[in-house]
Specification:
Blueprint: E1 3-5, H1 12-16, E2 24-29, H2 50-57, E3 77-81, E4 87-91, E5 114-119, H3 127-147, E6 158-160, H4 161-166, H5 187-201, H6 204-216, H7 222-233, H8 248-265
Parallel strand pairs: 1-4, 2-5, 2-6, 3-5
Antiparallel strand pairs: 3-4
The site of zinc ion (ZN) has 4 residues, from loops.
């Protein structure tokens, strides 16, 4: 993922300053043939890194970007083309801001629960562009799920606008189901791809924690129970979490304690 910050501080949504506790990520696509992020995202004059952000995103001279009052919509990020023609992401709202992206459905609005990004559509015929923005979108979603502790495979967490509408939490739009299936991808594929990416991104610390969590649920083998009790009685171990991982230093200390006890009893 190539992430550039370009907060739309002139947008009324940003100015409203409302926040959410993110419970999911909603995927949108723009519904207009313009793959350039600069169409939508431009930095605020005088903001930090203004020149640098403009050089990364490119300049929109039409004055129709979303960084102005009266736009009535705002998302947390755009995925699309950067000035150099590569695909990247511009973050346009703080992740915990309440966006204006889902409208309202029969049962409420995903604005209150979901972080949202727009994928800039092209003419919807270019497989290479699709593959690049799909990948970038998966990386962005994996990043957000990790950051906010979200499970992309859980019900209703990672959804597109059209799915949101069927769930009653978004207005009646087709994105992204009018586009992705043309290239053989569904939202189910996307959720799986996001989950896979998160597995790849797991740090050593997370692997250790998850393995321990799993092992704690396992029973001590019956054949080991008697000796474990004896070891507790001898003060070699306190017997708690008998299935947890043991690093070598702890094993060495236990062995040393055992030798000490032995020496003490002789
Ligand atoms: Zn949408």
């Amino acid at each position: 993922m190539r992430l550039t910050e370009c907060l739309l501080t002139e947008n009324d949504c940003y100015k409203g300053g409302r926040t959410i506790v993110p419970k999911g990520v909603m995927v949108h696509s723009t519904g207009a043939n313009n793959p350039n992020i600069r169409r939508y995202a431009q930095p605020t004059a005088g903001s930090k890194a203004y020149e640098e952000t403009l050089s990364v995103l490119g300049i929109n001279r039409n004055g129709n970007d979303w960084n102005r009052g009266g736009v009535k919509k705002c998302v947390h990020a755009f995925v699309g083309l950067l000035a150099d023609g590569s695909v990247g992401t511009a973050q346009t709202l703080p992740w915990e801001a309440r966006g204006w992206h889902a409208g309202t459905g029969a049962r409420g609005s995903a604005n209150n629960t979901h972080i949202a990004f727009e994928i800039c559509e092209d003419g919807l015929l270019d497989r290479a562009y699709f593959a690049k923005v799909y990948r970038e979108a998966a990386e962005l979603t994996a990043y957000l799920c990790e950051r906010f502790g979200l499970d992309p495979l859980a019900d209703g967490v990672v959804i597109c606008h059209a799915e949101g509408h069927r769930r009653g939490i978004a207005s009646d739009h087709v994105d992204v189901e009018h586009w992705w299936p043309r290239f053989g991808k569904s939202m189910d594929d996307f959720r799986r791809d996001v989950a896979e990416r998160m597995e790849e991104n797991m740090t050593g610390e997370e692997i250790y924690r998850r393995l321990n969590e799993y092992l704690r649920t396992r029973p001590v083998p019956a054949w080991a129970e008697k000796e474990l009790k004896e070891a507790v009685a001898l003060g070699i171990t306190d017997g708690t979490e008998p299935m947890a991982l043991i690093p070598r230093y702890q094993a060495a200390i236990m062995a040393r304690r055992a030798v000490e006890k032995e020496a003490g009893t002789v």
